[in-house]
Design a protein that fits this description.
Length: 474
């Protein structure tokens, strides 16, 4: 197979958001296709009509776009291909590789209960496998079932799990077409993957049992089975399957928590795949290094602290202007956004850009960046937090008045000139620099912690600083 003919696919069910595990599956498919100069296709498995809303589908597409994982060609919607799925089921029926089953719901329930009581995994007993349809009871709409092999083995040579073997005597004659004529998921997936030319199926190992059933459909249709790779699921820090109680499950939640798409991609690629000791990968490095042999068989544990540290690294390495852009883009997704968005203008953007070198050193997320930059957007007179308010004694207010007078004498306003003026003031008044810096910080930011105070002076500019100091001075 030439590498350019490699086709992967990401095939999510629209459940309302792009699950973080789905994000990683999409990333692995995307990387494999990119590495081999192939294509990644996107198929929305929307056959469950109750859950498949436009909002749910939009959330998946939005999540993929935010992660910067593009796909080739148009999005394919499984439900729209139902006629083709039916046609394939009927061709198997005509070839004698499938049969009509007229078992009633009551008969099927009794069959299942009996099988379970006897400890058998095959729940359907094949009662209609060799019966003449002319003996069928009236009023039952038949299903179409696959005439699965009853002896021997079904084998998958999995790129991650190795050789996986099922005994055919334990597998059911699965339903391909329901009584109402709708195709089952198992049939739809096989037909879609074949028609889309998919060469490599990379998905979660919760689909491994499906692989056995799908292989039997491929065999019955005499179609070539794609290469299969079933990757372990992501677990929470406690080793159990990642669930709501562990926190954020959807990719959209990580955006709202202030993570950068590049950092989340880098974190996800290292969940279950390793490449020596390397932890940090550019997108180009990821594409060059990714291979299925590096995917482990055991579940990966999600480590929130590790993700946060990695995100902090990406923030520190980011270009200041791109962080201003990311800062703006996240405002639509965070509670603080509604208050901050109207305050974004040419002046505040320029101040944000000027503050970024010092802001990004302290922030591990865009939320922390927003919190650090609050002083730029604060309304006068500043609302003081309790710690800051406690420091504003009459003596401190008097000192702030004198600091304002000293700063009014500075005309060429920079971090260096304001620092020089404050050092001179401290020396002349036998004060330590800290005794000057903290009252300045409280008056200019309303808090007791902030970026470097001389950076704050430079970012806010002369006019705003003098005005804020006047607000708090005695």
């Amino acid at each position: 197979m030439t590498s350019s003919s490699i086709v992967t696919r990401f095939a999510p069910s629209p459940t309302g958001f792009l699950h973080i595990g789905g994000g990683r599956t999409a990333l692995f498919n995307w990387l494999y296709a990119k590495k081999h100069g192939g294509k990644m296709l996107l198929r929305i498995e929307d056959t469950d009509r109750e859950r498949s809303t436009k909002e749910a589908i939009d959330a998946i597409l939005d999540g993929l776009r935010w992660l910067e994982l593009d796909w080739d060609g148009d999005v394919i919607y499984q439900f729209s291909r139902a006629a083709r799925h039916r046609e394939v089921a009927e061709s198997l029926l005509a070839a004698g590789r499938a049969y009509y089953c007229y078992a009633s719901p009551e008969e099927l329930t009794a069959m299942r209960e009996k099988a379970r009581a006897e400890g058998r995994t095959r729940l359907y007993d094949g009662m209609w496998r060799d019966r003449d349809p002319s003996t069928a009871p009236a009023g039952i709409k038949p299903t179409i079932r696959l005439r699965a092999p009853q002896t021997g083995e079904t084998v998958i040579e999995d790129q991650v799990q190795g050789r996986v073997v099922w005994q055919n005597e334990n597998l059911d004659d699965l339903v391909l077409l329901r009584g109402d004529g709708t195709p089952t998921y198992m049939l739809a997936v096989v037909v879609d993957d074949h028609d889309m030319g998919v060469t490599h199926i990379i998905r979660g190992d919760d689909h491994l049992i499906n692989a056995a059933r799908q292989k039997q459909i491929y065999d019955a249709l005499e179609w070539e089975l794609p290469s299969m790779s079933h990757i372990p699921l992501i677990h929470g820090p406690d080793g159990s399957k990642l669930s709501k109680r562990h926190g954020a499950l959807g990719v959209d939640a990580y955006r709202a928590l202030g993570y950068l798409p590049a950092a989340l991609r880098n974190y996800l690629v290292r969940l279950g795949w390793s490449h020596g000791d390397q932890e940090i990968f550019s997108t180009e490095e990821m594409i060059a290094a990714f291979d299925l042999s590096g995917v482990g068989r055991s579940a990966a544990r999600f480590d929130f602290a590790k993700l946060e540290n990695l995100n902090g690294h990406y923030i520190r390495q980011s270009d200041d202007q791109s962080l201003v852009t990311q800062f703006e883009s996240v405002l639509d997704y965070v509670p603080e956004g509604a208050a901050l968005k109207p305050k974004l203008n040419d002046t505040t953007r320029a101040q944000l850009l000027r503050a970024m070198p010092s802001l990004k050193e302290r922030a591990k997320t865009l939320i922390e960046l927003i919190a650090g930059a609050y002083f730029i957007f604060a309304d006068r007179p500043l609302e003081l937090d309790p710690k800051a308010a406690a420091l504003l004694t009459p003596e401190t207010r008097a000192l702030i008045g004198r600091l304002r007078t000293a700063l009014e004498a500075v005309n060429d306003w920079t971090a260096e000139t304001t620092e020089s003026a404050m050092r001179n003031f401290a020396e002349q008044n036998n004060l330590k620099l800290g005794a000057v810096a903290q009252p300045l910080r409280v008056a200019l930011t309303g808090r007791t912690t902030s970026p470097g105070i001389f950076d704050v002076l430079a970012v806010l500019g002369r006019q705003e600083c003098i005005a804020r100091l006047a607000d708090q001075a005695a």
